[in-house]
């Protein structure tokens, strides 16, 4: 068999991504804790991964001992500002301790300021349907950056604003769970205003900072390229899912299914783009599903699909995502802020990981400025509307005992991190079924 290796640039960041509500546990003061209590999820987050109970220390040890040199975490607004006029210094101190702990372990932190959760007092004022939330978020950002700028210079303002809006107002699987195309658009517009405000505040307080956001990007392919309704629906869905923030940041005018919205302050407010990629969609026109913009999305027949059928191993879509970014934002640095697959048995994850790392290496060889990769995720965490039914971790979590068990894919990722690359020997050892695809000939 041929042998080869794919190496990455010096100082490339290799890490894992997490989010506060999904790993911390013990919080009953945000919109998601209420959503769980109301019975909208199959399980409650409970202790989650017990990071608020200091388990973050052992998990960061696991990351560092596995050769990682970076970690992505998020801050919980509802802990830092539990009520409109209360700032919790103890929570800020605890987050400072986490960031200091990351640095002590050689992990460069990327800090996300908003990852799907809002304080209950913000929720009860209309959350992101209310434009006043923009200024509330700005005050929170200012307080956080003033407190933590010595420990972090890589900031992600908002995680997946498109998913927050789609799941909350079209699919209704996230709070508030009320279908409204108007609010779907309004919420994204207000999130974009908040991002722009946060970008300027961070640079005011920390000029050297790198500031961006994380876009959930899903390539859309028509099921039948010669059938116009499928083509139209794939184009409509591409724009509706992917383009609100990119259009607003590129031009100051946000594109939406209801027309254009001028947000001039958003123009040119990113130092990098965070790419969250899991898989693309194949799209077919279908009048029976208005919540999906009158279309069905699925994976092509014969796809390498996860056990729950919600993710697929399609690395060509990963490369396509980088290609779109380079065309839209030439020379803009990119961090892969999330990439992974749910796989409790670790059957697909090793080849998913290897094939996606290979696709990313190929993109770098076009001189596209990809700076780092954060795998989703370090340890099995609470997966929002699916509760504990999806397992994305390199380490398996026993929710009852909090015991962690390393999966084989954790060893593969460690080898990649330590090598700063992917070799044929790794593929032969951990996912030999992918060898001929990665090293043909």
The percent range for strand residues is 15-25%
- Residue runs with pLDDT of under 50 for 5 or more positions: none
What percentage of residues falls in helices of 4 or more residues? Answer: 40-55%
Number of separate helices: 16
Characterize the overall form: globular
Number of strands: 17
Largest sheet data? 8 strands, parallel, barrel
Strand order of the largest sheet: 2-3-4-5-6-10-13-14
The radius of gyration is: 21 Å
pLDDT average, as an integer?
Answer: 97
* Secondary-structure content class: alpha/beta
End-to-end separation: 8 Å
Features:
441 residues; alpha/beta; 3-stranded mixed β-sheet
Please provide a written account of the structure.
40% of the residues lie in helices and 17% in strands. The model has no long low-confidence stretch (mean pLDDT 97). The termini are close together. It contains 16 helices and 17 strands. Helix 13 packs parallel to helix 14. The strands form 5 sheets. An 8-stranded parallel beta barrel has the order 2-3-4-5-6-10-13-14, surrounded by 5 helices. It has 441 residues and is an alpha/beta fold.
Secondary structure topology:
Layout: E1 5-7, E2 13-17, H1 20-23, H2 31-37, H3 51-65, E3 70-74, H4 77-80, H5 89-104, E4 108-114, H6 120-123, H7 132-148, E5 154-159, H8 161-169, H9 181-205, E6 210-216, E7 220-222, H10 228-242, H11 244-251, E8 253-256, E9 259-262, E10 273-276, E11 281-285, E12 295-298, H12 315-328, E13 334-338, H13 349-364, E14 370-375, E15 395-397, E16 404-406, H14 408-419, E17 421-423, H15 424-430, H16 435-438
Parallel strand pairs: 2-3, 2-14, 3-4, 4-5, 5-6, 6-10, 7-11, 10-13, 13-14
Antiparallel strand pairs: 1-17, 8-9, 11-12, 15-16
């Amino acid at each position: 068999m041929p042998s080869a290796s794919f190496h990455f640039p010096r100082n490339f960041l290799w890490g894992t991504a997490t989010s506060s509500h999904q790993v911390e546990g013990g919080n009953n003061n945000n919109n998601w804790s209420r959503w769980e209590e109301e019975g909208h999820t199959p399980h409650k987050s409970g202790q989650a991964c017990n990071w608020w109970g200091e388990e973050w220390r052992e998990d960061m040890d696991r990351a560092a001992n596995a050769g990682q040199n970076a970690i992505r975490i998020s801050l919980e607004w509802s802990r830092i500002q539990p009520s409109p006029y209360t700032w919790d210094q103890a929570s800020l101190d605890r987050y400072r301790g986490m960031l200091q702990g990351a640095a002590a372990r050689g992990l460069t932190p990327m800090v996300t300021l908003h990852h799907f959760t809002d304080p209950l007092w913000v929720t009860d004022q209309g959350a992101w349907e209310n434009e006043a939330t923009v200024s509330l978020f700005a005050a929170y950002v200012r307080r956080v950056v003033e407190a933590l700028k010595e420990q972090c210079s890589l900031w992600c303002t908002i995680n997946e604003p498109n998913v927050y809006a789609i799941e909350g107002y079209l699919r209704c699987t996230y709070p508030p769970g009320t279908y409204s195309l108007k609010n779907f658009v309004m919420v994204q517009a207000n999130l974009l205003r908040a991002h722009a405000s946060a970008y300027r505040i961070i640079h005011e307080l920390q000029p050297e900072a790198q500031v961006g956001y994380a876009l959930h990007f899903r390539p859309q392919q028509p099921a039948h390229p010669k059938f116009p309704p499928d083509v139209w629906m794939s184009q409509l869905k591409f724009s509706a899912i992917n383009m609100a923030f990119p259009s607003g940041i590129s031009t100051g005018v946000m594109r939406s299914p209801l027309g254009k919205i001028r947000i001039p302050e958003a123009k040119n407010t990113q130092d990098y783009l965070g790419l969250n990629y899991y898989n693309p969609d194949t799209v077919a026109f279908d009048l029976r599903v208005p919540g999906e913009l009158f279309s069905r999305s699925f994976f092509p027949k014969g796809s390498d699909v996860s056990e729950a059928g919600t993710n697929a191993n399609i690395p060509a879509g990963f490369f396509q995502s980088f290609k779109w970014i380079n065309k839209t934002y030439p020379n803009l640095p990119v961090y892969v802020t999330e990439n992974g697959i749910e796989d409790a048995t670790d059957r697909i994850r090793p080849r998913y990981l290897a094939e996606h790392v290979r696709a990313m290496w190929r993109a770098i060889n076009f001189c596209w400025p990809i700076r780092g990769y954060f795998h989703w995720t370090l340890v099995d965490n609470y997966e929002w509307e699916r509760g504990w039914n999806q397992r994305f971790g390199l380490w398996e979590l026993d929710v009852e005992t909090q015991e962690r068990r390393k999966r084989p894919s954790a060893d593969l990722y460690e080898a990649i991190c330590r090598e700063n690359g992917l070799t044929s020997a790794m593929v032969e050892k951990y996912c030999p079924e992918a060898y001929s695809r990665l090293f043909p000939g």
